[in-house]
Structures are given as C-alpha cells and as structure tokens.
Amino acid sequence: MTGGPEQPGSSEPPGAPDRGPADSGAPPRTPSSLPIDPDVDLRVPAQRAETAGAHLVLVVAAVAAGGAVGALARYAVVRARPADDPLATLAVNLLGSFLIGVLMVLVAEGGRNPHPLIRPFAGTGVLGGFTTFSAYALDIRELLAREQPLTAFGYLAGTLVGCLGAVWAAVLLTRRAGAGDP
Questions:
Q1: How confident is the model at residue 63, as a pLDDT?
Q2: HSE (CB half, 13 Å, CA atoms) of 153?
C-alpha cells in the first residue's frame, strides 16, 4: 500500500511526498519531509509490529540503558564544576545538541540501514539522559533568586540559540564530511 497524503488513514501531513512501499528503493526523503519517527511507518504492517510486544521491550531497555549512560556522563561533567556554576549545564547542553545533530544525519540520511535500536539507545537514551532541561530551568531560577535578571535572561536565550546553533552546525559539518551520503 503506497497511499499518499490524500489517502484515508495516512499519517502523513498534507503535501508530504509519498515514500512508497518500504522496499520500493525510493530515494530517501529530505529531513524536512521525514515523518516524526522515520524508523516506523505505521502504514507498513511489519513496521507497525515494531511498536508492540518483544520489540517494544527491547526499545524500552535500550532507552533505559542509554539514559543511564547519559545521566552518568552528565553527572561527571557537572560534578567537575563548582555547584553554583551554570556553565557546566550550558556545556552539557551544547555538546549534547551537537551530538544530536551528528546522530540525526548519520541515522536519517546515512543511506545505510542502522540497527533499529541505535536511535532509541544513542538519541533518546544517551543524549536524552546527557542533556538537561530541568537543570537549565533550575539554573535560571537560581540566577533570578540571586537577583541577576540580566544574567538569567542571557543564559535562557543564549542556551536556546546556542543549542539550536550546535545542532545546525553539526548537521552541516556531518554532511560536509560525507557522513550523510549513501
């Protein structure tokens, strides 16, 4: 079943190009047209089966194991800095965002068939456990409590812009290095 965006039951947004059957050899879609989870096309019964049963247990285990690795790595970085220094959180989030950009290109555009647990383990698990929004929010709260609103706002905006920039730079550099080419 190749149904395009107009077909009833399609999960594709209007105007998205049709991927065709999973084994059709169709060219890879551009990153802006990839579905939210490019690993699973719910219109393909074999892929839909990945969201249930034993495979789901493996995905959850991969995320949990990766999350433990990422959280321990973040803890090590943060412990190496003074307790009231938000630069550790900023460094972790910038590095994690950069690595997320690299991973996006390698997995989504690499042209190879990576192991189906790579993204859950490395992306959601390791990098999700490594980066931290909660510590970022607490750092801002602390700066405001110390009556440093300009520093708090700079940190808030700088982290957002810096992390988005890190992802963008990583995508460009990874593509330039040829890692995204099939």
A1: 93
A2: 4
Question: How much is the mean pLDDT over the chain?
Answer: 78
Instruction: Write out the two tokens for 32.
Output: 């802006």
Distances (CA, A) of 19 to 2, 10, 35, 62, 161: 7, 12, 10, 28, 33
Determine the distance from the C-alpha atom of residue 41 to the mean position of all C-alpha atoms in its chain, rounded to a whole number: 18
Nearest alpha-carbon partner for 134 in 82, 76, 92: 92
DSSP string of 12-63, one letter each residue: SPTTPPP---TTS-PPPPPGGGS-SSTT--TTSHHHHGGGSHHHHHHHHHHH
Among 122, 130, 131, which Cα is nearest to 164's? 131
Q: What is the pTM of this model?
A: 0.69
Q: How many CB atoms lie within 10 A of CB 121?
A: 23
> Each residue of 13-71: pLDDT tens digit?
444 444 444 444 555 544 444 444 556 667 777 766 666 677 778 888 999 999 999 99
Contacts of 171 (CB under 8 A, 6+ apart): 31, 101, 102, 104, 105
**Which residue type does 179 have?**
A
